[in-house]
Amino acid sequence: MHVLFTVEPGCSIAEVEARLVRETLARVTSNRRKAAEILEISPRALAYKIKSLPIDTAAKHQGHESGLPKDAGDRALGGVT
Prior knowledge:
Elements: H1 13-27, H2 32-39, H3 43-52, H4 72-76
Helix pairs in contact: 1-2, 2-3
């Protein structure tokens, strides 16, 4: 599953990485193990990135660990599945 997204010039690497993690989590309905597999990193590395990058985790209490609504990944990616 390869999906392209646009990176705005001037974005920091941390912002790009955070967006990639958020969108991946949104696409797999916050399944961290699956997201780590897709990103080709360990689940532990993903947990560290979630803590250290500007990723909104306030939504965890609502069941959406990505910080986005469940279908936000599809909307943000233009409905591509």
